[in-house]
Fold this protein.
Amino acid sequence: MKSRRMTRRGLLTTAAGAALLLGFGKVSAQESRPVWMPFDGFPPADSMAEGLQFLTPDEARTVGAIVERLIPADALSPSGKDAGCVDFIDRQLSGPYGVFSGQYREGPFQDGTPMQGDQSPLDARQRYRLGLAALDGWCRANAQAAFADLPEDRRDAILADLETGKITLDGIPAELFFEQVLANTMEGFFADPIHGGNKDMVSWRMLGFPGARYDYLDSLDIAGTPLRLDPIGLKGGPSWSADWVPPSAPARKG
Amino acid sequence: MRRLPKKDIVIVGLGWAGSIVARQLAETGLDILCLERGPWRDTARDFNISTVTDELRFDKRQALMVQPAQAGITVRNTVSETALPMRQWGSFHPGNGVGGAGLHWAGITWRFTPEIFRQRSHLVERYGESAIPAELTVQDWGLTYDELEPHYDAFDKLAGVSGRAGNLKGEIREGGNPFEGPRQNDYPLPPMVQTHGPKLFAKAAAELGYHPFPSPSALPSEPYTNSLGLKMGPCTYCGFCTNYGCANYSKASALICVVPWLLLQPNIEIRVNSEVVRIEKDGTGRRATGVVYLDGAGEELFQPADLVAVCGFQLENVRLMLLSGVGQPYDPATGTGVTGRNYAYQTPNSVTGFFENVAFNPFIGSGAAGGALDDLNNDNFDHAGLGFFGGGSTRVIPIGGAPISQRHVPSGTPRWGAKWKEETTRWYQATMSVGCEASSFSTPGNYLSLDPTYKDRIGRPLLRMTFDWPENDRRMSQHVVSKCTDIVRAMGAKHWEPAPIKGAWNTSPYQSSHVVGGFVMGADPSTSATNKYLQSWDVPNLFVVGAQAFPQNPGYNPTGTVCALAGWAGAAIRDLYLKSPGPLAPT
Ligand SMILES: Cc1cc2nc3c(=O)[nH]c(=O)nc-3n(C[C@H](O)[C@H](O)[C@H](O)COP(=O)(O)OP(=O)(O)OC[C@H]3O[C@@H](n4cnc5c(N)ncnc54)[C@H](O)[C@@H]3O)c2cc1C
Ligand code: SF4
């Protein structure tokens, strides 16, 4: 062993020939990760858990009143609220994303140029907690009711003013709060239903997105017409149930 | 600090570059240790087909990327600004774990053309010294295409690259890229299937007199057994490719194309969750004695070695050199120093077309299958009088239709509400973009350094990036985007939205992970940090392998060249350095 090491060292400091030592030594791919758990990379925290995990019932009501205006119900789809965006947001806030885990969170925090990105010291939980309270405060002072109790058109007008910063909220920039809620609402509406939103894959049906299917080799030559496939998600899909009817097939009788 | 038993060679980082260097050195029989900062990865467990199609987890929450809390950077556009941390990844997406960014990459696999390696000489010969804008620090690479060609060829066979040769041993072939350098062999696999959008693109481009060809792709078009005997499955166009791992053993990566072979080599050891924090040098400062790394439990360990190869991706490679005092740090005020000098990026350009009466089925997609043309790239068109140099590879590559991100609506559409929903649904099936990944020239003001304020979790300064688009590249962007607009129009779009670069570099939206330079290769130690073998001029037993070696960026994705350079550097260590340790090129 000793002499072999010295020979090897010699290879790097003198001009001795290489490849003499093939076949010695041992493989050791060290593995120091804990045992496997579903979603261990970044778990969809508690997405299966019942009940609110982070939001208070009042906060959840306000979030619902926002997301059903960001994504209103119409012939194309149910509302963001009915699609589960409140559950989605609540689960996200209660998990690692809620504290922006993994992001660089060291100070000093200071405003940068518009090109330097989001520099707010507030994490996602704080943005909701402060923003929802401030929104209700603003509504009570200016519209004599909580946001969730205002009529749809009034809520739309307030949301539009948050988006453009026409309204000033206490403790958090209105645009920051609005962008946070808008981004999470869209995530919840379009993400796989395993995260709590996009119930019954409503957004995927709306768009014609087939979801978690992994193989389109049979459809590569489709020439400009929509491929109509029932969507499937990480938890399955309607085609797994006994009374499923393929979308292109005529309805089964009786 | 605990001192571990000595190794002959330590390789830092086990992505594309590190795995190829290890492969080149394996047969020397030397004791080789690969240190990888991130976790072990395995297709069956980490990219399982029943969990991998999760857009929220992989695309939005960036599950495969190194976390900024571990390896963040600070950014600013000019020296007069205070750099601030990129608190979450935006413009680029660095990787982590065995396979690196080469796990969640897209697989578009180019060779650079011969002229690129002689960038300055070429421009001077054709346009004259005085035509080169003063703002550009354009320079030659110090090596030639012909020297690198065998290693491009080897990478084609390692990764199972699909495509059609346009220049086979000097013979120009119909249907391939007529502008590419001569190849000694065709691609190992035929091109990928062209779906409807790329077909429209190819037809329109040909009508306009361009030379379209299928984009070269490291996603195999057929089952493939690579040069190390490892098997890959055919790509199924799953549409969860860029930013995801592949469940099919299709997308080429170190994980499936090299590491299983490395594990069979008795003299190679891989340690994961092992982050190298600096290179140690002896008293002369001219010899690396090994590396200091943190193991999974956070213990600092000294790993002695006779030779160190740093392969930790461009950003980390430059940062480790700055932190370890290798090469003189670049000073933009004086233009002296090489470590951090000539940082460049990739200029992103696109034109989105909105079509009527067509469904593109955008979810049928992959990172690299589609159509391309090179007529707008390099010096393939005459630049005399245009006021800029450079250009880009133009392509239509539908990458997938996962809808948190992949929803195009005409600008001016509300971002929420009933109208937003109507427009989103209307256009989901009916948009197709022509993109142009274009060149990025280096300038004296764009550079990398250590941040004076922001520190990582163990108190080391973050890397600081100072970057804005050079005037040359802004003009180039206007030019290529106007040409791409003609193509989109000829494809039959009813409405189109050109997106040339505008304003200062915005650090937030994803643009590309094609960050280059900062520790560049060359023939002159006053303007390069390594010689043409990627060997540090100052510390000859230190090799630094990755895109940080590019003196400027041409209009192509980098990885084909990163991997060819890794093969080249590994061969140089094996065939030259080990026979006669010391500087391989005269200073
Ligand atoms: C979304 C995306 C799409 C892309 N698409 C394309 C494409 O289509 N075509 C193309 O050509 N390129 C593409 N790229 C770029 C491509 O991924 C990189 O060029 C390539 O991975 C670089 O190889 P590398 O070995 O230098 O770095 P990596 O593959 O990132 O490997 C570096 C490894 O080193 C490890 N490491 C880093 N620092 C340390 C340390 N201090 N100690 C120990 N280990 C360390 C990292 O964890 C990583 O595993 C894409 C990248 C991204 C992110
Ligand atoms: S598109 Fe192909 S290569 Fe990419 S992840 Fe899907 S199957 Fe793998």
Observations:
- The longest helix of chain A spans residues 124-143.
- Residues 57-103+118-207 of chain A form one domain.
